[in-house]
Amino acid sequence: MSEFALSIRGLRKAYASGTEALKAVDLDIAHGEIFALLGPNGAGKTTLISIVCGLVTATDGTVLVNGEHWRDAYKAARAQIGLVPQEMNIDVFEPVWNTVAFSRELFGLKRDDAYLEQVLKDLTLWDKRKAILKELSGGMKRRVMIAKALAHEPRILFLDEPTAGVDVELRKEMWDMVRKLKERGTTIILTTHYIEEAEEMADRVGVINKGELILVEEKAALMKKLGRKTLHLQLAEPLSEIPAALAGWAPQLSDDGLTLTYDFDRHAEKTGIPSLLAAMRDEGIGFKDLDTKQSSLEDIFVGLIRNGNAGADA
């Protein structure tokens, strides 16, 4: 077995107009992990997926799929990949069963009705197997898209915004299915606008912006950052600068001098808040109100996008 399920080096996509959709992306995905790729619209998420899946031609770079070169051994590499795209690409006049079975046949695999039955049952589609696709709801059609992607038993599954526009119940069912796939050893790469899904599901998170991968980090490390909280103190009187007596806590002073901000670790045995408030009292600094805010993955994501490549660890 190759070291990585997916190994990307120097992957770049430039158009004749001069626009660079991808800027020399390097990325390794481990076997059996769930990797979440976050980024704003137009960041390059779908371009990256489309290149790996053979739908878009890269300008430069290489991709190895379980050790198979995605160009030199195209059929072998592509057979290991399942893709659930954002856009529906199914024949709405076909029955569900025919659609899924045909997808398996496209990869030259032997008929396996028992496997397809299990896929449909996992996606709550078994009762709809004879239904014409146009008769199904949008959420049901999305399930069929996933069933199609799984029909040829891929070892790597790409989910490009898989829960966009679906109801809460279906989102939960889909993520239950993703967990089952992970347990079976399937490697999953997903893009999502629902940052809480990445926070819930992913082993690692990558952030891409303007075609550049600006962060790749273990989810556990990100969650440690999520332990940070911020204390906001609304002062009774404005300060022109932070007194030397408060320097040890490294608080930030707002431009108008009326708000002190102090970051602390909520998991720490001593947060430093009582001693900070005592020092403020000793200095005669009063405050009218205070509140705390928990950092979220979304805060980190927005901060990375706003600050560009500062602190990138890709």
TrEMBL record:
PANTHER family: ABC TRANSPORTER ATP-BINDING PROTEIN. CDD domains: ABC_DR_subfamily_A. The keyword Transport applies. SMART domains: AAA. Residues 6-235 form the ABC transporter domain. Signal peptide: none annotated. This is ABC transporter ATP-binding protein. The keyword ATP-binding applies. InterPro entries: AAA+_ATPase, ABC_transporter-like_ATP-bd, ABC_transporter-like_CS, ABC_transporter_ATP-binding, P-loop_NTPase. Keywords: ATP-binding, Nucleotide-binding, Transport. GO terms for molecular function: ATP binding.
